[in-house]
Design a protein that fits this description.
Elements lengths: L3 H14 L5 H7 L16 H24 L7 H17 L23 E3 L9 E2 L2 H15 L9 E7 L2 E8 L2 E7 L5 E3 L2 H4 L15 E9 L2 H13 L8 H9 L4 H5 L4 E10 L7 H10 L9 E3 L2 H14 L7 E8 L2 H7 L9 E5 L4 E13 L5 E12 L2 E7 L3 H5 L19 E5 L7 E5 L42 H11 L12 H9 L6 H4 L2 H10 L6 H13 L2 E3 H7 L7 H11 L2 H12 L3 H8 L6 H12 L1 H11 L3 E3 L15 E5 L7 H10 L3 E2 L9 E4 L5 H9 L2 E3 L1 H11 L1
Helix pairs in contact: 3-4, 17-18, 19-20, 21-22, 21-23
Length: 738
C-alpha cells in the first residue's frame, strides 16, 4: 500500500517548489504526488492508472501553457519529458484509459489571447524522444520494419543540434514573407509576423520560383545577447529572464513589435511545411537549398550512414555544447531520403522518420534505507528501493524501481553484469538517475562507503502476502506467487483491476471500496460484486461513509454493468499478458463469448485446429496464447470466470461492412516476399479497410496475398481453395477501396 504520510510530504515538497500551482489545488486534485510512484507502472491497476493519467493531464497542460504561452516554465525540460514519457507508458499499458484531452496528443499549447490565430496549412508536429543507444537502435529497427528493409540496407540520417527556443513557421508566397506563425497546438498558431520581421536572420524577400514556400525553424537568443538584454532590463527596472529560451519566446510573442525589435533574436531553419515544388530529394539537399535562399542552417548538421555514426556525432555535439553560445538540449535525427519520409508518414503528434536524442538527466547519491517487496495482481514479486529523499534534476526522489531479484544481485536481463556486478544492500550509498524514465533507477553503488556489517539482501522465497512458496520460471526474470485464489494481495489487485475504467468501470467502486468490501469478507472474486445488493446492501448502509443514496447509486452502477462488451470482459479478467489491445484483437476474431469460450475449451482439449486458429491472430503471440491456456485449463480459475459470466450479458461484437468493401471483416494472410511495400505497410492498409490479418492459413482464411517465395502457405491455400492474389493485385485492390 502507498504510504499516505509520504504522499503528503511529497505534496508539500512539490508545492514549495512550484508555489504557483498551490498546495490546496495539488492535494484536492491528487496532483502533488512526486514524479515517482510507489509501485512500478507495470503493476498499476486500471484505477491507479486512471488517477495518474488525470494528474499528468493537468500537470502537463499547465506546464505546456506555462512554457509555450506564458514563457514562464514551472518545470525543467527533462522533468517535462519524463512526465510525458510516463503518460505515454501508462497509455500503452491501458490504451482504453487514454483521455480525450491526453497530453500525448498535445503539440505546444493553444494560442494566447491578444494574437491573431492562423491555421497551419500543414500540421507542425513535435518529436518523439530517445535517451539511449537502445532507443536509437529501436528507432532504426522500427523504420526498417515499416519500410521492409533488411539490416544490410543503408538508411542515411541527418543529425543536427536540437535548439532550445521557440518553433516558428514562415510562409512565403511568390518570394514575399506573407506571415510568421508560432507552433501553437500544432494546428493553429499565433500570428507574430510583424515581430518576426524584426529578426535580421529571417529574410523578408526570397529569390525563388516557388509560389508557396513554408520554412520552419527555431527562434533563439544567444547567451551573450541574454546577458546584454538582462542588463538593459535591470537598468530599466523591468523583468529579467532566467534563460535564453524564456527570453526568446517572451521577445517574439510581444503584442508591440517595437519591443521585439529591441530584443536580439536569431533564427535557424531546419524544416519546411507546404511547398509548391520540392526543395530536393534528400533532407540535406533541402537544407542546402534553404541556405542558398538566405536562411541560417546549423553548421553542426551532418549526414551520416548508420546509428554508430549518429552516436559519434551526438557525442561530438555534446562536447561542444558549452561553447556553442546558445542552448541546445539534444540532437535531432531525421531520415535523409524524403521519399522514405513520405512513406513513413506521421503518428498523431510525431513523425515516424525523426526523433530527438536528449542529453542525459542529472544523477544524485543517497542512502538506500530499505528494500520492500510488493505483490501484483499476476503474482509478480516486485522489489522497491526506499531511499533517503534526494533531489535529482530538481525533483525530490524517495523510491526507485529494482525490477527483480537479479537486478538487486547485479545481473542484467541477458545474464550479463550491471553496475559492474555490484549487488544492492540495505544501507548502501547509491547513485540514482532519471534519464528518460519517471521512475528512478539505481545507476551505481559506492562500495567504499559500504559498512562491514551490511548483509546481502535475501530475496524472499515465500510470498509476503500469503506465505506461499514462490516460483520462478527459468524463462522469466520475475519470481511469482502462484496461489491465484488464496493470495490476498493478488485477489485485491485483480478486483481493483476488474472495476477499473478500462474494464468494468463501476462508478463508486474504486480501490478504497474494493479493499473495504474484501476485508469485510463481502467480495473475494468478481462475481461477488453482483451479489452485493442481495447479500450486503443493508449492512453497507450502516457503514461509515455510506447512506441510502450512496448505496442505491452503487447498486445502480453495478447493475448497469451486467451488460458488457466482449473485449472489456476479456480485459477485466486480469489474465497475464492480456492487455486492452490484445483483448480487442481476440474479441474481433471470435466476435462472441460463446465462440471464444468454446475455442478455449477446444484449446484445453489440445485441439490443434483451435490452437492454430488462436495463435494465428495477428498481434497475439505464443506467450499470450500459453497464458490463456493456463488460465482456462485451471479448474478454479475457469469456475470463477463461469460464475461471473453467468451473471452477465456479454454483448457480441458486430462488424458493419461499408459499401463496396470486399475485404472488410475478412481474414487475410500475407506470405512470401513483398517487394513494393513492407509487411507493416501492407498490414496497415488491410486494417484500415477492416480486414483481419492472421499469420497462418486455415479453412477460415478468406484471402492470401502471396509474393515470391510464398511456399507452404500458398500451397495450403491452393489445396483449401482459398483465393490467392499477388502484391500488384493487392495494391490495386486497396487503392480502389481507399
Amino acid at each position: 500500500m502507498i504510504n499516505q504520510n509520504k504522499l503528503i510530504y511529497k505534496f508539500e515538497m512539490y508545492s514549495r517548489r512550484y508555489p504557483s500551482i498551490g498546495y490546496d489545488n495539488i492535494s484536492k486534485l491528487h496532483l502533488g504526488v512526486s514524479f515517482v510512484k510507489e509501485i512500478n507502472i507495470t503493476d498499476f491497476s486500471a484505477e491507479e492508472a486512471k488517477k495518474e493519467l488525470a494528474r499528468l493531464a493537468i500537470l502537463l497542460k499547465r506546464a505546456n501553457l506555462a512554457y509555450h504561452q506564458n514563457d514562464n516554465p514551472i518545470m525543467s525540460d527533462a522533468e517535462f519529458d519524463q512526465l510525458k514519457l510516463l503518460n505515454q507508458k501508462i497509455e500503452n499499458l491501458f490504451p482504453l484509459l487514454k483521455r480525450s484531452d491526453s497530453p500525448s496528443e498535445d503539440i505546444g499549447a493553444p494560442s494566447a489571447p491578444g494574437f491573431k490565430k492562423i491555421k497551419h496549412s500543414k500540421k507542425m508536429f513535435s518529436l518523439g524522444n530517445a535517451f539511449s543507444e537502445t532507443d536509437l537502435n529501436e528507432f532504426d529497427l522500427r523504420i526498417r520494419k515499416h519500410l521492409g528493409l533488411k539490416s544490410d540496407k543503408i538508411v542515411s540520417y541527418v543529425a543536427e543540434p536540437k535548439i532550445d527556443g521557440l518553433s516558428l513557421s514562415l510562409r512565403y508566397e511568390n518570394g514575399i514573407l506573407k506571415y510568421a506563425v508560432t507552433r501553437g497546438d500544432g494546428e493553429i498558431g499565433e500570428d507574430v509576423t510583424n515581430n518576426a520581421k524584426t529578426i535580421q536572420s529571417i529574410p523578408k524577400v526570397l529569390s525563388t520560383s516557388q509560389d508557396i514556400l513554408e520554412v520552419r525553424g527555431e527562434v533563439y537568443m544567444s547567451h551573450d545577447n541574454l546577458i546584454k538584454l538582462n542588463k538593459t532590463q535591470k537598468e530599466k527596472g523591468q523583468k529579467t529572464f532566467s534563460n535564453p529560451r524564456n527570453a526568446a519566446a517572451g521577445s517574439l510573442r510581444q503584442l508591440d513589435a517595437k519591443i521585439s525589435m529591441e530584443r536580439p533574436l536569431s533564427f535557424f531553419a531546419y524544416s519546411w511545411g507546404e511547398l509548391s515544388e520540392p526543395l530536393g530529394e534528400t533532407h540535406i539537399e533541402a537544407l542546402s537549398k534553404l541556405k542558398l535562399l538566405g536562411f541560417n542552417t546549423n553548421p553542426l548538421t551532418l549526414r551520416v550512414q548508420d546509428i554508430k555514426d549518429l552516436l559519434t556525432h551526438y557525442n561530438f555535439i555534446e562536447q561542444q555544447r558549452n561553447s556553442l553560445g546558445y542552448d541546445i538540449d539534444g540532437v535531432v535525427y531525421k531520415v535523409d531520403n524524403i521519399e522514405l519520409q513520405n512513406r513513413l508518414g506521421f503518428r498523431t503528434s510525431t513523425p515516424r522518420w525523426a526523433i530527438a536524442h536528449k542529453f542525459p538527466a542529472e544523477l544524485a547519491w543517497t542512502l538506500l534505507e530499505k528494500i520492500d517487496v510488493q505483490v501484483g495482481r499476476t503474482g509478480a514479486i516486485s522489489p522497491v528501493a526506499r531511499l533517503k529523499p534526494v533531489t535529482v534534476g530538481g525533483v525530490v526522489v524517495s523510491n526507485a524501481t529494482l525490477h527483480n531479484e537479479d537486478y538487486i544481485a547485479g545481473i542484467g536481463g541477458d545474464g550479463s553484469a550491471i553496475r559492474n556486478g555490484k549487488d544492492l544492500r540495505e544501507g548502501d550509498w547509491v547513485q540514482i538517475y532519471r534519464a528518460g524514465d519517471v521512475i528512478p533507477k539505481v545507476a551505481d553503488v559506492d562500495l567504499k562507503k559500504r559498512k562491514e556489517n551490511i548483509q546481502i539482501f535475501k530475496f524472499p522465497l515465500e510470498c509476503p502476502s500469503c506465505g506461499a512458496v514462490t516460483y520462478r520460471d527459468p524463462n522469466d526474470a520475475v519470481r511469482r506467487c502462484l496461489d491465484f485464489t488464496n493470495c490476498p494481495a493478488q485477489v485485491v489487485e485483480r478486483l481493483k483491476h476488474f472495476v477499473s475504467r478500462g474494464a468494468f468501470d463501476i462508478d463508486g467502486l474504486g480501490e478504497k471500496q474494493v479493499e473495504q468490501f474484501f476485508y469485510c469478507g463481502w467480495i473475494s472474486e468478481p462475481s461477488d460484486i453482483f451479489d452485493l445488493e442481495k447479500k450486503y446492501a443493508l449492512q453497507l448502509i450502516n457503514n461509515d461513509g455510506w447512506g441510502q443514496k450512496s448505496v442505491d447509486n452503487l447498486i445502480d452502477a453495478i447493475n448497469s454493468k451486467r451488460f458488457i462488451s466482449l473485449d472489456k470482459l476479456l480485459f477485466s479478467l486480469g489474465i497475464r499478458h492480456l492487455g486492452e489491445g490484445a483483448s480487442k484483437l481476440i474479441a474481433r476474431h471470435y466476435l462472441s463469448w460463446d465462440a471464444f469460450s468454446m475455442a478455449m475449451e477446444e484449446v484445453y482439449k489440445q485441439n490443434t485446429d483451435a490452437w492454430n486458429d488462436l495463435i494465428s491472430i495477428d498481434g497475439v503471440g505464443e506467450t499470450l496464447c500459453k497464458s490463456l491456456f493456463d488460465t482456462f485449463s485451471n479448474q478454479n480459475q475457469r469456475l470463477e470466470i463461469n460464475r461471473l459470466v453467468d451473471k452477465l450479458e456479454v454483448e457480441p461484437l458486430e462488424l458493419k461492412q461499408p459499401l463496396d468493401n470486399q475485404v472488410f471483416g475478412k481474414k487475410v494472410v500475407f506470405t512470401g516476399t513483398l517487394e513494393k511495400m513492407s509487411r507493416g505497410e501492407a498490414k496497415m492498409h488491410a486494417e484500415r479497410l477492416g480486414a483481419r490479418v492472421v499469420s497462418s492459413v486455415s479453412v477460415k482464411t478468406d484471402l492470401v496475398i502471396a509474393g515470391p517465395g510464398a511456399g507452404s502457405k500458398a500451397k495450403k491455400a491452393a489445396e483449401l481453395g482459398i483465393a490467392i492474389i499477388n502484391e500488384d493485385d493487392w495494391i490495386q485492390l486497396v487503392g480502389s477501396l481507399a
